[in-house]
Design a protein that fits this description.
Structural class of chain A: mainly beta
Distance between the termini of chain B: 37 Å
Oligomer: heterodimer
Shape of chain A: globular
Radius of gyration of chain B: 13 Å
Shape of chain B: globular
Helix content of chain A: under 10%
Structural class of chain B: mainly beta
Order of helices and strands of chain B: EEEEEEEEEEE
Number of helices of chain B: 0
Radius of gyration of chain A: 13 Å
Order of helices and strands of chain A: EEEEEEEEE
Number of strands of chain B: 11
Strand order of the largest sheet of chain A: 1-9-8-3-4
Largest sheet of chain A: 5 strands, mixed
């Protein structure tokens, strides 16, 4: 029970923004939303995380709705190397890190 | 940034033998380490959580006598797959976190093939 729901797959054209949604309707007030991605046969890579405010770093932007029940990861200019499985995780504490099925993003030329 | 080194990256072993996988935090103290298993086209499944100096906490359905986890120092955790069988073939991944390190850093994974 990973507490998040993501679409199983999405396509995106190279150079366009990729918007990956995540529902976490049971999130509690002190839980953060983390995003990781996993490129084939590698360990997951941290992308970004947030609590309630929108966040941006060199990789992506994270938009969290005001009620915190959903969020969107935005890759502003997707490249072929962004093809991966993207995982949205709600962190419940130091000792609980569980993955849902994730979204398989395919960036097409 | 925080780095977690996992070795070996690939291992092939014979059925009935044991295999040890190492997970090291290179530039931070890993108070907690996690071990995952991933079958092809599936998500990561948490196997166990280990805190430095304590016994590991195993997820339901994971045999603690088969998957031995040791976390004796703040920089090293090991997973030993004992008496390996072909069905243990999988991608094993560790991750680590520490008191001054938010988020979780993952190792690069170990592809275990039991023949």
């Amino acid at each position: 029970d990973a507490k998040t729901t993501q679409p199983p797959s999405m396509d995106c054209a190279e150079g366009r923004a990729a918007n990956l949604p995540c529902n976490h309707s049971t999130i509690s007030g002190n839980e953060y939303v983390y995003w990781y991605r996993q490129i084939h046969s590698q360990g997951p890579q941290y992308i970004i995380h947030g609590l309630k405010n929108n966040e941006t770093n060199e990789m992506a932007s994270l938009i969290i709705t005001e009620d915190r029940k959903s969020s969107t990861l935005i890759l502003p200019h997707a490249t072929l190397r962004d093809t991966a499985v993207y995982y949205c995780i709600v962190r419940v504490g130091w000792n609980d890190m569980r993955f849902g099925a994730g979204t398989r993003l395919t960036v097409k030329p | 940034g925080a780095v977690v080194s996992q070795h070996p990256s690939r291992v092939i072993c014979k059925s009935g033998t044991s295999v040890k996988i190492e997970c090291r935090s290179l530039d931070f103290q890993a108070t907690t380490m996690f071990w995952y298993r991933q079958f092809p086209k599936q998500s990561l499944m948490l196997m166990a959580t280990s805190n430095e100096g304590s016994k590991a906490t195993y997820e339901q359905g994971v045999e603690k006598d088969k998957f031995l986890i040791n976390h004796a120092s703040l920089t090293l955790s090991t997973l030993t797959v004992t008496s390996a069988h072909p069905e243990d073939s999988s991608f094993y991944i560790c991750s680590a976190t520490g008191q001054d390190h938010y988020g979780y850093t993952f190792g690069s994974g170990t592809r275990l093939t039991v023949v």
